[in-house]
Amino acid sequence: MNTTAVPTTSTVAFTAPAAEQELIAGLPSDFRWGVATSAYQIEGAVDVDGRTPSIWDTFCRVRGAIDNGDTGDVACEHYTRMPADVALIKDLSMDTYRFSVSWPRVQPHGKGPASPAGLAFYDRLVDELLAQSIDPWVTLYHWDLPQELEDAGGWPVRDTAYRFADYSMLVFDALSDRVNTWTTLNEPWCSAMLGYAYGVHAPGRKEYPAAVAAVHHLLLGHGLATERMREAAPRAIDIGITLNAATAYPASDAQPDLEAARRADGMGARLYLDPLAHGRYPADVIADLAAEGVEIPVQQGDLATISAPIDVLGVNYYFSQKFTGFDENGRTVGDNGLPISRTLPLDKPRTAMDWEIVPEGLTDLLVRISRDYPGLPMVVTENGAAFDDTPDASGYVVDDGRTAYFSSHLAAVATAINQGADIRGYLAWSLLDNFEWAYGYEKRFGIVRVDYDTQTRTPKQSALYLRDLIQQLRTN
């Protein structure tokens, strides 16, 4: 049964503002265009071919952890529908597909040899992509830590970094003859802070010192894997890491507001970028953590490993925020003796995630990274928006909000390039509606609608906008 419905002619009614069109038309001719997904969000087949549970399989069983009690057990059935999904990427004129590898599928139990069946899936995926002239971009870790490693302490424990490097080499040895671009981690901030400090992502712990330790061990795992992959590479390859970052705007020029923005930028961006690019943690962030009684568990040689040279920085961007150092009563210090930090609205339109739409924040972020961390090529590896889609009788979605989001953010990328930022490509999040972590299946980011009852895929207006835009730019 055909479960993919791709319009052969555009039904796009959206027209980008002329200023955005002009900026986008100036994007480089060799610009990379693609889509991104992650294993747990789309694959399903969680107990097939020897795969063992990840922390997300466990977290989904915690009462109240996931909206509607949803799980990734079935998701988009990508594990069995992969060839058709690759054909869909081709139909949308994308030249790059960024996907993640499921650690517990490839290395059950988080240690020991690779599972031949688990590796075989990604082997077939890479071959399918290459047969369609689509460049495979591998992400080695997108949050699905094997549960047995979490039982042994998880990312707050140093040994997990070494286990990650071992797992990375299992994948690298199998695919490096055909894959040219490798990302070690996706959004270590989310893994560490949402998973270990705030408890809203797997494994659901609320232990701030453990979260800070997880930050360091995630970065150490990245460095260890990078060194080993570089040494074993059969030819020149690109290795990088993907960070979710944003621009932290101060609410005013008042010192408490400036300090609140500095602290947010320190914990959200510089805590990762500085050790990666400069081989050191920011002194002001170390001081901020010390004020809370927390230390980063650095051992000798760690920072040299973490700062192993990379070839590309993936930047995931969704929104930016404004920060103030005053509480509602005008105080600058809380009852805990620590400085106040809280967000204020930027008074921008919002997505279904209640995230403000701030394309200028992406421009500011990319230009800032280019300025403060020169010589580091960037690709926007995730950018997109959830909206409350309403399909017609055929399943087609006119998603003006999402389409406008893409247009405004592509214009923001073009503006950053015009201001000197080195940006090599743009990957939309996401190819498919999928399991959106703690939000279950209610929030839809896909440019392709998935009917979860039938698994039918139907490209939305935003998908056709991107397809037609890419085709137009390639012919100019």
UniProtKB/TrEMBL annotation:
Its EC number is 3.2.1.21. The keyword Hydrolase applies. It is an enzyme of class 3 (hydrolase). The active site is at E382 (nucleophile). It comes from the Bacteria. The keyword Protein transport does not apply. Pfam families: Glyco_hydro_1. Signal peptide: none annotated. InterPro entries: GH, GH_1_N_CS, Glyco_hydro_1, Glyco_hydro_1_AS, Glyco_hydro_1_beta-glucosidase. It catalyses: Hydrolysis of terminal, non-reducing beta-D-glucosyl residues with release of beta-D-glucose. Keywords: Carbohydrate metabolism, Cellulose degradation, Glycosidase, Hydrolase, Polysaccharide degradation. Belongs to the glycosyl hydrolase 1 family. PANTHER family: GLYCOSYL HYDROLASE, LP05116P. This is Beta-glucosidase.
